[in-house]
Specification:
globular; Rossmann fold; 27% strand; alpha/beta; 4-stranded mixed β-sheet
Length: 230
């Protein structure tokens, strides 16, 4: 059974998340290793957070060097995803991630891996871009339009950094408008929703909000909820 982990951003490899990463690897089809797709993650932070976190719990890891649109088209990067048990994808500007990955060799390899039971985790803009749609902002973030996402989880729009003083005042606003009409899932920082696409549980320090046509249900560490996203 494929597992998905939706991290809201920040703290994904702090010790609270160790059981989540173990579960993803143990549940995933593959050789017991993890593959990281760094996207916009700086190399120094990758070393200090991701690699240190996986090393702490004894999980072998490969960094697949996908940072630019050209990287998503390279067959060797797609091939590197062939044997791992979990793929972890970082973030960036969601609409740019969609544009970079859509209909590429690497994205097809990710979808194929999930199809054979590899676990998939993403964080920040990574969870936003895999959902039904993402906001495209103007220069000062005062206006936006919606563009299609990668639709790995196509039945909701997914927002990250839901409680962030830095990000939420602008980036959360489109999702709160959308939530009056559609299903929206918002994940706080240092928090994750992990599940099979329908049944989910929450771990971490913050809340996961499931907002369906204006009805907001919030879930915290240890709680479970149903949301058919896949």
């Amino acid at each position: 059974m494929t597992l998905f982990a939706l991290f809201g951003g920040m703290g994904e490899f702090d010790e609270w998340a160790d059981p989540v990463h173990r579960r993803l690897v143990e549940s995933g089809t593959g050789d017991g290793s993890a593959c990281i797709i760094p996207t916009a993650m700086p190399e120094g932070e990758l070393q200090a957070q991701d690699l240190a976190g996986y090393a702490r719990i004894g999980i072998p890891v490969t960094v697949v060097p996908v940072r630019t649109p050209d990287d998503t088209k390279r067959q060797e990067n797609a091939d590197a995803l062939g044997s791992c048990s979990v793929i972890f994808m970082h973030g960036g500007v969601p609409e740019l991630l969609v544009s970079a990955f859509k209909d590429t060799t690497v994205w097809r390899a990710i979808v194929d891996a999930i199809g054979r039971g590899v676990s998939f985790a993403a964080t920040s803009g990574g969870i936003m871009c895999i959902s039904s749609k993402v906001p495209r902002f103007n220069d000062d973030h005062s206006e936006w339009t919606w563009v299609p996402g990668l639709k790995l989880l196509p039945r909701a729009a997914i927002g990250s950094h839901w409680d962030s003083e830095r990000f939420a005042p602008t980036t959360r606003r489109p999702y709160e408008h959308l939530a009056q009409e559609e299903l929206v899932v918002g994940v706080a920082e240092s928090t994750v929703a992990i599940g099979d696409g329908t049944s989910w549980s929450v771990a971490g320090e913050g809340l996961v909000h499931v907002i369906d046509h204006g009805r907001d249900q919030a879930y915290r560490d240890g709680e479970q909820f149903e949301a058919r996203l896949r």
